[in-house]
Amino acid sequence: MQLNQTNIKTQQPPYDLNKLGTMLNEENISWSFRNMKHIMPRQDIKAPAEKFRYQENKQQVYDIHYEVDGKLLSVGHFLQKVFATGFLVIKDDKIVAEQYVNGYTEQSTAHSMSVAKSIVSALVGIAVDEGAINDIHDSVTKYLPELIGSGYDGTTVKNILQMSSGVKFNEDYSDKDAEIHTFLIDIFGEKALPIQHYIEGLTKETNPGVFQYKSVDTQVLAMLIERATGRKLSAYLEEKIWQPLGMEHDAYWNTDLHGTPIAFAFVNATLRDYAKIGRLYLNNGQWNGKKIISEQWIKASIEPDRADLQPGAAREFFGYGYQWWKPLGSDGTEFMARGIYGQHIFVNQRENVIIVKSGVDPTIFSVHDYEAVLAYRAIINQLK
Fold it and tell me: In whole angstroms, what separates CA 156 from the centre of its chain?
């Protein structure tokens, strides 16, 4: 299927790829995460003329306490500890708390990291609802025949949604030889390899069906969306979510050097607009009475098939659905999008609350996410 390129333009320089190597340094990271357009190429995602804006009902939440490991800590202390750059709490469509530090403001775009994966999942759901993707139990090679013979041969769309593709891809950031590093070097280094070509060269490590977190799986979902719909990923996001939800600000998606959005991360948007994605899921795919995503897809996305566990600290605290996380103890109405360095969209449907946080947490692997859930639950309990 020929992709519709209408109105899609990938930014040409000035941007400085040399900043990629130092963007995560302590002295640079806060600036980097709100200025990715100055580091990498991008595709813009335009906000509509008619905006949806939250009302305000500001309350004191920073003195609310929660308990972790036998210690009583405050929300304000937590936000400092995790180097939060932005924090937003919305209840009943009213902003009850909003805070920005380190140069961030209400208008600043914040780098999504893996929160982008949950956005890609939403776009897959829309494509399924519209019939562009026939069945998530289909082999992905039905739509992407160029992956026949690759590690994705014999893998279903659902396997990929659940990060159980079986493809060999090590995402251990502490391992300098891990594929996550060679991937970035290959696409932004001298090779300037198109992302699709890198994926075609991946091999199989295990049979599909075993959970192992691999960002490259989300990139395949993006390839699937583009092939099935005939639309570029950023254009599809603009048409299906950014415009209908009345986003307040333009966003952008950073790309490789060939204009392909890096789907597993690199969305850049304001916290209030991330909160609208939370609101869409809070209302089971409805937006002010209009269906954007089917409730069936939302429910399937946030409910893991089994007790998939995140490796690392507090590993038994989260299950994984279709690129969304479910905290332990959730009754099915509480779930979140998560990105390393502390990016969150947290949704509690029962209490009608959305919490969004951006950050530059130096622990990198979101080891504080367990504590974040405890802090967020304390806030929600106080707001009842």
Answer: 21
**Domains of the chain, residue spans:** 45-383
Cα(302)–Cα(117) distance, rounded to whole angstroms? 13
- Per-residue pLDDT at 304: 86
Phi-psi region at 170: left, alpha or beta (left = phi > 0; alpha = psi -120 to 50): beta
pTM as predicted = 0.94
Residue holding tokens 């775009």? Answer: 109
Q: Bridge partners of 334? A: 348
Tell me: the pLDDT tens digits for 325-353? 999 888 889 999 999 999 999 999 999 99
pLDDT band at 312 (very low <50, low <70, confident <90, very high): very low
The CATH homologous superfamily for domain 45-383 is: DD-peptidase/beta-lactamase superfamily (3.40.710.10)
Count of H-run helices and E-run strands, the chain:
11, 16
Residue 253, H or E segment: strand 251-254
Cα–Cα distance list, 376 to 3, 79, 323, 384 (Å): 42, 11, 21, 13
The alpha carbons of the chain give a radius of gyration, in whole angstroms, of 20
**What's the token pair of residue 75?**
């929300």
Is the pLDDT at 315 greater than 50, yes or no?
Answer: no
Angle (CA) 156 159 162, round 5°: 150
Asked if residues 155 and 139 have their Cβ atoms less than 8 Å apart, the reply is yes
Q: What's the pLDDT score for residue 220?
A: 98
The set of residues, in sequence order, having a beta carbon less than 8 Å from that of 338 and lying 6+ positions away, is 114, 115, 318, 325, 344, 366, 369
Q: Which tokens hold the place of 296? A: 């069936």
The backbone torsions φ and ψ at residue 343, rounded to the nearest 5 degrees and listed phi first, read: -100, 130
C-alpha span between 86 and 97 (Å, rounded): 11
Residue 108 CB neighbours (<10 A): 20
**What tens digit of pLDDT does each residue of 22-43 get?**
998 999 999 999 999 999 999 9
Given a contact cutoff of 8 angstroms between Cβ atoms, the answer to whether 106 and 100 are in contact is yes
pLDDT tens, residue by residue, 127-162: 999 999 999 999 999 999 999 999 999 999 999 999
